[in-house]
Design brief:
The structure holds two protein chains of two kinds.
Chain A (H helix, E strand, L loop, with lengths): L1 E9 L5 E10 L4 E6 L5 H8 L7 E6 L2 E2 L8 H5 L2 E4 L11 H11 L4 H14 L15 H13 L5 E5 L7 H16 L3 E6 L11 E6 L2 E2 L2
Parallel strand pairs in A: 3-8, 3-9, 6-7, 7-8
Antiparallel strand pairs in A: 1-2, 1-4, 4-5, 9-10
Helix pairs in contact in A: 3-4, 3-5, 4-5
Chain B lengths: L1 H20 L1 H35 L4 E6 L5 H13 L3 E7 L1 H10 L1 H8 L9 E6 L4 H12 L4 E6 L1 H43 L1 H9 L4 H44 L11 H26 L7
Antiparallel strand pairs in B: 1-3, 1-4, 2-3
Classes of the chains: A alpha/beta, B alpha+beta.
């Protein structure tokens, strides 16, 4: 469960990215965060993953107050999440396989089981045939799917994606959204930010709309 | 325990991979550390050898008693009986001038010089081993001996020993000061190597933090990296010293034969070598740790 109560975020330069935001996403729920660019979508997701801290208000994830966690606890909070970043943050000096393996190495996974899990994750996003490739040789859509494979490999209970479809054409973008939906169907909490409402397709979905840092719907 | 092991194994493998990724700079770093260590360790080995050698010369202090050139055999006999009766004398050896000359002639270099001389320029001599080691006894005995009839000169072999001792002490102090300075150098070298590593791996560190890596997880490969460099640097130093000993062993042996001493150079003992390896590995670790603490923790995900 992710819960924001009266959260504001003001950056040191005075810019107020979020103003008095309150909402709750239940466990197993899928929600989209929609809004123009600069509306505060990314900031909102960064607060959840403790990359930044709110100026006022509290962010609660699985019962923990994220803003009050000390530095040593933050890595363990983050292991609850699968994060898909807007800029992907892939490691280009490692193979596709090694990129996906990284979260398992970090959580100290036994290596044989880890190999199976990496293959399963790559299979899920349709990259199984490219495990030895370097990320730089992949297309934009493939890189995005690689990023998703890395996010899901440790089977997190919460999947957070920041503009996962922003640089993709419609066809690829729908694929990606379908992958996220399939995780939602098996009980994962999914939170996706997007500026592109077209992608939502026909299925009804909970949408949180941000406008200039305020939640409008 | 299993997780602990897998974390460390992962870090160790990663450290080796990173070293292998930059072979040239790794070799340079190892060379610098190796040379830095080989200097004080080499001096230490040298001093140990000199001490062993001086011990061989003076396991019991000796006096050399040179007679006048015109001393007769009966006069030598009187001195001999004096030595026999003196309680401070443990043993003595008479070296007649003829046999002294023979010894010189055995040496090919000196033989020619000796052949060029008319007659024997060498005196009869006694080599006296003293029972009591104290400087006072030596002094008294040497004075008594020098007052004997037909004694030209008494040489106290302990005077140079004392000088050598003082020199060794000084040398040891210099070696310690040198190792202190060079240890700082090694720490600085590792510190800087790790700093560069951290800067080039900024992205990787950031990503790892974002997906839940603890500081320990990120720190570990760098600590292994520094420790390996220190350890291998120590081994390089050991090899440099070995090479030095290998190259000088024969000439030293030859030189010592001139002094009628059978002497081979000693390498660092097993214990000393282990201490050096541990010390160098420890310094590598320390340099890495300082570097990690001052650079790594500043990198936070953006």
């Amino acid at each position: 469960m992710i819960s924001f109560s009266e959260v504001s975020k003001r950056y040191p330069n005075g810019f107020e990215a979020l103003r008095n935001v309150s909402f709750t996403v239940e466990t197993g729920e899928m929600a989209l965060i929609n809004g123009h660019s600069g509306a505060g979508k990314t900031t909102l997701l960064r607060l959840i993953a403790a990359i930044e801290r709110s100026t006022t208000g509290s962010v609660i994830v699985n019962g923990q107050d994220v803003g009050r966690l000390n530095g040593a606890a933050i890595p363990f909070l983050r292991r609850n999440f699968g994060l898909v970043f807007q800029d992907q943050k892939l490691l280009f000096d490692r193979s596709v396989f090694e990129n996906v393996l990284l979260p398992l190495q970090i959580s100290g996974f036994e290596s044989k089981a880890a190999v199976r899990r990496v293959r399963a994750a790559l299979d899920k996003v349709g990259l199984l045939g490219k495990e030895k490739a370097r990320p730089i040789t992949l297309s934009g859509g493939e890189q995005q799917r690689l990023c998703i494979a890395r996010a899901i490999v440790s089977r997190p209970s919460i999947l957070i994606a920041d503009e996962p479809t922003s640089n993709l054409d419609m066809e690829y973008a729908k694929d990606i959204m379908a992958i996220f939906k399939s995780f939602h169907q098996v009980g994962v909490t999914v939170l996706i930010s997007t500026h592109d409402v077209e992608l939502l397709g026909d299925t009804p979905q909970r949408i949180l709309t941000l406008s200039h840092g305020e939640l409008t719907g | 325990m299993n997780i602990w092991f897998s974390y460390h194994w992962h870090a160790l493998v990663l450290a080796f991979k990173r070293l292998a990724l930059i072979p040239f700079s790794t070799l340079l770093t190892l060379g610098v550390i190796g040379i830095a260590f080989s200097l004080p360790a080499g001096i230490y080995v040298f001093l140990e050898n000199v001490e062993t050698l001086s011990g061989q010369f003076s396991s019991s202090p000796q006096l050399s008693l040179f007679l006048k050139l015109n001393a007769t055999q009966s006069e030598a006999g009187k001195i001999e009986s004096f030595l026999k009766e003196n309680p401070h004398v443990a043993s003595f050896r008479f070296i007649p001038k003829a046999s002294a000359l023979e010894q010189f002639k055995e040496n090919p270099g000196l033989a020619e010089v000796m052949d060029g001389l008319e007659g024997n320029p060498l005196p009869d001599a006694f080599v006296v081993t003293v029972r009591d080691v104290s400087a006072e006894t030596l002094e008294t005995l040497s004075r008594a001996l020098s007052e004997l009839h037909q004694v030209e000169h008494v040489q106290l072999d302990s005077a140079w020993m004392q000088r050598l001792d003082a020199l060794l002490k000084l040398g040891r102090l210099a070696a310690w000061m040198l190792s202190l300075l060079l240890s700082l150098l090694v720490i600085a070298v590792v510190f800087n190597t790790i700093r560069l590593q951290i800067l080039t791996m900024r992205d990787e560190i950031e990503v790892a933090k974002l997906i839940g890596a603890t500081n320990g997880f990120i720190r570990r490969p760098f600590l292994y990296f520094g420790t390996i460099q220190g350890l291998v640097g120590g081994i390089v130093a050991w090899l440099i010293i070995s090479l030095g000993i290998h190259l000088t062993d024969e000439p030293v042996k030859h030189l010592m034969q001139l002094y009628e001493t059978d002497f081979r150079l000693y390498h660092l003992s097993m214990g000393d070598s282990l201490v050096m390896f541990l010390f160098s590995a420890g310094l590598g670790w320390l340099g890495a740790w300082l570097s990690v603490v001052s650079h790594l923790l500043k990198i936070e995900p953006r």
